[in-house]
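Quick note —
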Amino acid sequence: MGSLLRTEAAARAALLDVRSYAVALDVTRGDRLFRSTTTIRFGCAEPGASTFVEIQPETLLRAELNGRPLDLARHVDNRLELADLAADNELLVEADMAYSRTAEGLHRFTDPADGAVYVYSACAPDLASKLFACFDQPDLKAPFTFTVTAPEGWTVVGNGASSQLDDGRWEIAPVGPISCYLVAVAAGPLYAVRAEHDGIPLGLYARRSLAAELDREAPDLFAVTRASFDRLHGLFEERYPFGGYDQVFMPELNWAAMENPACVLFQDEMLFRSAPTDTQRALRAVVVCHEMSHMWFGNLVTLAWWEDVWLNESFAEVLGYRIAAESTRYDSAWTLFSRRKSWGYDADERPTTHPVAATGAESAAEALSAFDGISYAKGASALHQLVHWMGDEAFFAGLNRYFAAHRWGNADLRDFLAALALPAGPAGAQGPDVSGWADDWLRTTGVDTLRIEVEVEVEVEVEAEADVKAEADVEPEAEADVDTVPGAVPGVLTSAVLVNDGTRPHRVRVGVYDRDGAAVVPRRQLDVEVAPGGRTPLSELAGAPRPALLLPNDGDFTWARLRLDAHSAATVAASLSAVTDELARAVLWEHLRDLTRGAETSAAAYLDLVAAHLPGETSDCVVEAVLAFAADHVIGRYLAPADRPAALARLGDTARAVLARPAAATGRGLRLAALRTAVATASGDAQLVQLEGWLAGDDVPDGIAFDADLRWSALARLAAAGAADEERIAAELAADPGNVSEVGAARARAALPDDAAKERAWHLLFAPGELTIHQLVATAEGFWRSGAPEVQRAYVQAYFERLPAAGERGGAVVQALSRALFPVGAADADTVRAAEECLARTDLVPSMRRQLADGLDDLRRALAHRV
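Predicted structure written out below.
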């Protein structure tokens, strides 16, 4: 289907007043097709005009407009023409529709554990026409009533309250009005746990094979849900407007979750069939809070056009982390946010970067290609900075005005800024200059750099052993002098200045850290504002002993690169793990990641820092992030292939050093994070033998079960090393049937090094309908883990030749193949040339073009480490 143009959407919105949808689904008609019958009642501002309705059927059976049969031949490119509209209209469309295997439309899943079947809708961002006939744009909202004919023994849930009728059908009552992309239906032999809070009925649902997991996780999920409701009701004058609140955990969802009003869908991996780390639990809490925030920002008030999707997601993003940190037991959620920002920093430093508030998207497909780290992480950081600048009282007063003015309707950035700009004080008072803020923050691209310039009077010098050259490798832009050496008397600051090398104003906290024995502890925080290109003196520090560490953006309140002064950089190089503040360590590790990604710090120097400091780290969030970047980027991309086995072995030794610490001193989550890396990086005979022992249950680190996720990770590693074969993979799958195991088996099979295994995996990757999206991603992840160099080179060339045709297979497949399968580890001149030639083609869909451009940027960054 041709992507909806913005001009088409604007014309249709001006023409139509959509009053209601009644949708009847019959999911008892076999495993391939379902029946969808839709009745839409709508007004037309210009009787006699024409428009179109979207529907993507297998077979269009009938269509009637005001009782008049429509010519089905006028259904072209999945649009059905509607001519000679009346002032008041009733449209009936009946079709047989195909179930989805890619979670785009009505997804159908057969549980390998027990054969039970489940279906659920996936209408976002513009996929509703795969489920029912509709005017599929966000500013044509209406109430929806669903009736569902389902097999006996099924439960059906959706946006409104659901009940079973006398004839056996299920009815889902209307809520709203809501946009088409927010419609939700989920059905099957669901297992439910129910509760109530503050007059709101609460439900948790999952497939019946996960009943034990849902029972185990329900107390924590309900605790986070209650806390989130209480906090949001404290912040917003408008109470939750959608009746009950169900959270449904379903398999093979493409997103972590989807904010359908009153019926939020989550990936059922969040029920943790395998043991989670503390970070995974905290991240789930953030997602619960994020999706609930959408009930107001996105559902009660909805974006007018897709280019404002950043406002939906950025708002929910920053509120999700804030509520989790302030109102649940997961008080380290801001550390997770610092980790999340890596995604946005990467996107903002690429050639494909765009303003947070992107404008000019001519089609839905173009606008939706900007669902990225800028829309989520950078936009959330901008709002976090805005709140830090305005203060809570003014910000939330503006937000409540926004909800009151646009409830049940649509709005855009101008409406949001207008609500914030009103003064909070007496009549005649000047409101905040949010328009200027928006120009600086939302309509520009790139990352500013904040640094501190210091002048020091050194009174005494003492000898100390240090490798100044190593310190210079960490901060090549800083000149090392005698007082950068750990152990030297630091001297007295005569001046310190915060410098903004960027184009935006920043309000930050500068952290002042001193040594307390071996520890590096916070002494004070300075609230500082610095103008674009400006210099702000830190006069409070003049005349005081030089701190061990001066940290711009302490607390992570803004969006900026950091460049430390030489003495602070030396402290980080020598004592990063001794910094007592967890969020400060996360900010510093992100700083080191930025230096390495830009080739300002060598891959070897970064791995040295990991080996030196990670064994002493106490946050599993930090450990997971650092180990993942070290394995996937520093070793998997930046190092030459010949250097990777030794580096992987060393990284595995670092993970084992964490495991070697007493269990009481590390905590189970941190040890689990380390064990996962030890498994995934196993290299050499000794480590592979250890893997075999762990699979057999021998000498597994204390307190950790070697469960399904670990077992499949180990098998993938052994398969890539030629130490496991298809027979062994099949035996593991038979011993533990289920979709988690099917995904694990797909990854392990693709990792097998023999030519036949590679040919089989290649066929599955490019044959439509052979794999679910999760299996497709797993196969892509395993494919490049092994194989003779000359064989890999041939597949790299074939990849760029075959990829463009995959654009016809839908957005989820495009994302999987152009991101997960992109051969970023094969960074050489030939791969760059092939990527450039592919990118020059004119037949790429927008999302594929964006992913290819980002992959090419990664290739060039990898090559920068090898010159």
